[in-house]
Amino acid sequence: MTTGSLTVPRRTRFRLPRRQVPVLATLALLLVMYGIGVSQYTAFSNVQVIFNVFIDNGFLLVVAVGMTFVILTGGIDLSVGSVVAMTAMVSADLLQKGLPAALVLVIALLIGPTLGLLMGCAIHFFDIQPFIVTLAGMFFARGMCTFISGSSIPITDGFWTRMSQERIGDPRGNFVSISVLIAFAVVLVAAYVLAYTRLGRNVYAIGGNPQSALLMGLPLGRTRIAVYTISGLCSAIGGILLSFYTLSGAPLIAVGMELDVIAAVVIGGTVLTGGSGYVFGTVLGVLVLGVIQTLITFDGSLNSWWTKIVIGGLLFAFILLQRLIGIRYK
Amino acid sequence: MTDSRPVLTMTGISKSFPGVRALHDVNFRLFPGEVHALMGENGAGKSTLIKVLTGVYDTDEGAITLHGEPVSFTGPMQATAAGVSTVYQEVNLCTNLSVAENIFIGREPRLLGAVRWGEVRRRARALLARLDLDLDVSAPLGSYSLAIQQMVAIARAIDIQARVLILDEPTSSLDAGEVAQLFRIMRQLRDEGIAILFVTHFLDQVYEIADRITVLRNGGLVGEYPTAELPQLSLVEKMIGKELDVLEGIEEHSRRDLAELEEGTPLVAVSNLGRAGAVAPFSLTIHAGEVVGLAGLLGSGRTEVARLFFGADRADGGQVAIDGTSSSLRTPAQAIDQGVGFCSENRRAEGIVPELSVRENIILAMQAARGWLRPIPRRRQDELVDKYVKALNIRPADPEVPVRNLSGGNQQKVLLARWLITEPRLLILDEPTRGIDIGAKTEIQRLVTQLSDGGMAVLFISAELEEVLRLSHKVAVMRDRQMVAQLANDEGLDAERIMQTIASGSHREEVDR
């Protein structure tokens, strides 16, 4: 051991870009599924098919973006489906009572983040498992839906109907709804926040190793509370988009949606233990779910429950993939 | 090379925890441009001193000055901001983030709230170049070895204009080449005038890099010495706290001749058994009726050896032969099947079940060996328990008392009884006499002799050299997680020779490097 021994440090093993592997796998899967669709059904190649996937799943995408933040920190948010339903219910109820659309929007958009903030505080200050806190939030929000009304409330407000029916399209007749544009905006903002702001980087650091993050002086509590608030906000936006889509608020809508959302985020390559994943992956994950549904609809003979079966299989495959990558990189 | 004025002083530091006096009136000084080793056995107070310094703990008494000004940090963050940075044994960085980000996260250069990634990478490269490291700063930290991660942690620490750098056992998971690399960086930082406080268990490393040494023992200050004026043997004495002549009064014990014992097939023979990061590959044979003592400082790898023998940790490589036939000790269940018993050093956490009675604790291992579906008849239980309560003189002699009501020595005997009842062929005793009174200690020692006379092989681990010498036929010496020597316990062997072996090691290391 002498001073002169100068080993040039090198990376110990050659490695694939670890963090991109799951996203690339999802992209490949999506292309394969699309390829199958196009080869089986001539109408599948129509651009509108893809647009429809976005139209039908815009609200899911927004909620999944919020969930991506939570899962990146290593947490989970089970309340999103109920918060989506509650937001839609509150909007429908307030509109029915004659409140102006702008005011309803503001109120509806405040409820979700407030609940998220409270859950985040409970998780951080009382050091309770996110699973159980957000489970409580889920029951609470679902309960509030039926408390507002036991049955579906139609929305007839002018602004809502316009948002619902407005088509933004190209001259050949392909179109998307305004909801899709809103969803894209949310995706872009989220991607920027995660890649370029301290909040976003802290999210990754905490997901990677909370103890280290704390010792490096990063604001652990503030960041964790922030992600649940962000998830609440995304659920609220998702709820508004859903009410644009259905033009109603129903107490039992979006039941079990949180599970679809988690599936989309995981299939999109975000690691459940946190610290690794991209919003872009989540977009792909939502598209995978959407394309599966579309394929099954095109087939016509398959029961719609096949969607669930395929999602189950894929979810398992992707968790397995994450685990295998995890082992390789330990 | 040292400045005349210390950059950091700690005077009269005392710190108590409920029931424990962790530090008592400790003084410590650190000069700019020196590497200062803080030495002591486990529990000597090294970590507490560092935690007091960095504000993790408050002091009960004493004062700390930095650059001559009194300071009192409320936490590591404040200490870091004042230029006192700590790099811990376990790298406290996020392996999922890039190298550059790990260096700068929390204080990234930003423009209008957006992280300037180009600038982050440029500055990270510059900082690493200062440490002579050529890394891909965009690669995730996890793709580099632990040694490199350690150096990235140092890079993060010194970027905050550190004047004092605390390295808490940074080398414990590094190999020789990686240690050399770390030392190169330490020397460079020292030459830049940074004061480095270096904590390690490895004596060689201290003599290689440290300018001065402060020794702690049992929470008290033993002294501060220039490295050149403190021979390794004296350092070991000061850490252990015993003068050699005190150690020499060894009670002679009639031992069977080692050569006679070692005739025939060994009961257990391991070769090149090792586990990365725990203990370097070693070979050892144990014969029936033989007591093999394992000597070495705390943290030298003694317990790790025992755990490999019991299958509590899995060896990376090497062979095991039992009765001359190739075998394996991969899980405790396998080891128990082969007749290995293990009394853990940590009897509270890994041994006794305090709420269960003496009887229940004693039959635990035997019941486990039989399988839970074949309960031991109560009559048989009572017979066995009675026998061992008498044989080991467990007090109170009532088998139905909860074990938590027994004294430490008696708890230890219960634990011993648990293994004896399974009639092991090899019994591993890890610090069986630590923390128990002298009477119980003698009884346990006598028992070990009796057991080996009866043909049981014993692997006996103890920090007390007298005890090891009194009981063992053969002494294996551990040092820096290597088995450096195996000495026959004959006329020529005394505590001094074991100490010298601990202090100086053998030639094997030179060969390795």
Key phrases:
heterodimer; A: 330 residues; mainly alpha; ABC transporter involved in vitamin B12 uptake, BtuC; two-stranded antiparallel ribbon; 4 strands; globular; disordered N terminus; B: 513 residues; alpha/beta; 3 domains; six-stranded mixed sheet; 22 strands
Task: Write structural notes for this entry.
- The complex is a heterodimer of chains A (330) and B (513).
- With 330 residues, chain A is mainly α.
- Chain A is 71% helix and 2% strand.
- In chain A, the strands form two sheets. A two-stranded antiparallel ribbon of chain A has the order 1-4. In chain A, strands 2-3 form a two-stranded antiparallel ribbon.
- Chain B has three domains: 8-244, P-loop containing nucleotide triphosphate hydrolases (Rossmann fold, 3-Layer(aba) Sandwich), CATH 3.40.50.300; 245-339 and 426-440 and 455-513, Rossmann fold (3-Layer(aba) Sandwich); 349-423, no CATH class.
- Chain B is elongated and about 80 Å long.
- Chain A binds chain B through residues 1-3, 5-9, 11-13, 15, 18-19, 192, 195-198, 201-202, 204-205, 207-209, 211-213, 215-218, 275-276, 329, and chain B through 76-77, 80, 88, 91-97, 101, 105-106, 108, 110, 113-115, 117, 132-136, 139-140, 142-145, 147-148, 151, 156, 176-177, 179-181, 183-184, 187, 208, 513.
